[in-house]
Each structure stands twice: as structure tokens, then as C-alpha cells.
Write a structure and sequence with these properties.
229 residues, alpha/beta, six-stranded mixed beta sheet, two-stranded antiparallel sheet
Length: 229
């Protein structure tokens, strides 16, 4: 059973590049941890988010043209879980595409800006993706959005993660998904990933991992950028 409080108010939600005030998100405070269940020898992904919270994350990711942005320090437990469930949803989506024949989907690039939330999240995201069996191109130095987008296009990464809140307040954090065209992922992609996130929020089993772990490769986007000057 999951115990939740009522939704609480927070500021600086970002929809279509506009900072909005007084949006609501469900609180993570005082929740009970979900028990681990295994299926076919695989461990089900654990999340502290309940179904409502997972759906909130999924909808924000899907309906915004600039990713999902929120205040990092307001509820750090919620923030960590939001990043984890987005990462897991991306893992499920990418694994399905790999099994459909897109072998490039087994490599995911991640990078972001200098914000606190970004720098705390990226190392854990890299480990989560690696444990799921993906090869991670980890841009461990802050990267501007255009440079990340160019690298995603040149490296032909089907879907990569760019953590930035752009012009939002410094305390904010954002998760953006970028396609191999160097563009923000459209709803045709984010909607499918959002569906995976909602499924996870319902505590249903999802297949997000390969049999063997992947590897983390430190990656510098500057060399690609410099070669196109």
C-alpha cells in the first residue's frame, strides 16, 4: 500500500518555454517503500512514486516542448525519484526499439548544465542505465544545448538525455529528451516513454534491462563541435 499526502503547491513549472506559477505536484512525503517483486528472475524496478505522481511526471514530460522542469530543492526525494522513473521509462522504450531492430538504441548519451540537480542526477542516471545494460556516453562536463544536440545527431543517438532548465531559476532542474536529428523529442516519442512511466507507477512489471550490464564512456562533445566550426 502507498500512503500519500495531498498535492502541494510549487512554483516555476515550465510548459512550452513559459514559467508558470502555482502549479501542483503530488508530495512524496511520508510514503511507504514498495516491496520488490521478481518476474522470471528479473527484479522489478522500485519507485517511491505512486500512480498519481508517476502520471504527473509522465504528463509533464509529454506535454511540454522543453521537457519537464521543476524546483529541485523543494522536495529532493521527489526529484530523485522523478529522474529515476524517467530514466527507467526511457530504458523500457529504448530496449523495445532495440529488440525491434534498432541496434543504435542500446547506446544512450546523457549530459547537462551546471545546476545542482543536474550534477547530482547525471552520475546516478549513468549507473542506472549501465545496470540496465545500456552503453552510456556520459558527458561529464557541463554542455550547452546546441553542442549536445549536434553530438546526438552526429553520433546518431536515437534518444539522449539533456538535463537543463534553460532560462528558469537556478534552483530548477529539467529533463529534456533529444532525438538523433538534434531536436527535442516530439510527442510521438515522449508519449510512448510517458506511457512506460505510467505503467511503472502502477507497479506493473516492465522489461527495462538486458542480460548483461553496459558500460559508461566519458564523452566530450567539444571535439565534435570543434570539427564543425
Amino acid at each position: 500500500m502507498i500512503v500519500t499526502n495531498h498535492p502541494k503547491v510549487f512554483s516555476n513549472a515550465n510548459i512550452r518555454g513559459v514559467v508558470l506559477k502555482n502549479s501542483t505536484k503530488p508530495s512524496l512525503s511520508n510514503q511507504l517503500q514498495v516491496d520488490t517483486v521478481t518476474f522470471s528472475g528479473k527484479k522489478r524496478f522500485e519507485t517511491k512514486l505512486d500512480e498519481e505522481q508517476a502520471a504527473y511526471v509522465a504528463n509533464k514530460l509529454t506535454t511540454s516542448t522543453s521537457g519537464y522542469r521543476w524546483v529541485w530543492g523543494e522536495d529532493e526525494d521527489y526529484s530523485k525519484e522523478a529522474v529515476k522513473i524517467i530514466t527507467e521509462g526511457l530504458s523500457v522504450y529504448s530496449k523495445e526499439n532495440y529488440e525491434k531492430g534498432d541496434k543504435k538504441a542500446k547506446t544512450i548519451m546523457i549530459g547537462g548544465d551546471t545546476r545542482e540537480g543536474t550534477q547530482k542526477s547525471l552520475p546516478k542516471m549513468a549507473e542506472q542505465l549501465k545496470d540496465n545494460g545500456f552503453d552510456v556516453l556520459y558527458v561529464d562536463k557541463p554542455v550547452p544545448t546546441p553542442m549536445h544536440a549536434l553530438a546526438a545527431k552526429i553520433k546518431e543517438i536515437p534518444v539522449s538525455v539533456l538535463m537543463t532548465a534553460s532560462h528558469n531559476d537556478w534552483k530548477d532542474v529539467g529533463v529534456n529528451l533529444v532525438t538523433d536529428e538534434g531536436a527535442i523529442a516530439p510527442p510521438s516519442i515522449t508519449g510512448l516513454i510517458g506511457d512506460k512511466i505510467k505503467t511503472i507507477g502502477k507497479k506493473e512489471y516492465v522489461d527495462s534491462s538486458f542480460q548483461e550490464k553496459g558500460k559508461i564512456i566519458k564523452f566530450d562533445t567539444y571535439n565534435i563541435y570543434n570539427g564543425h566550426l
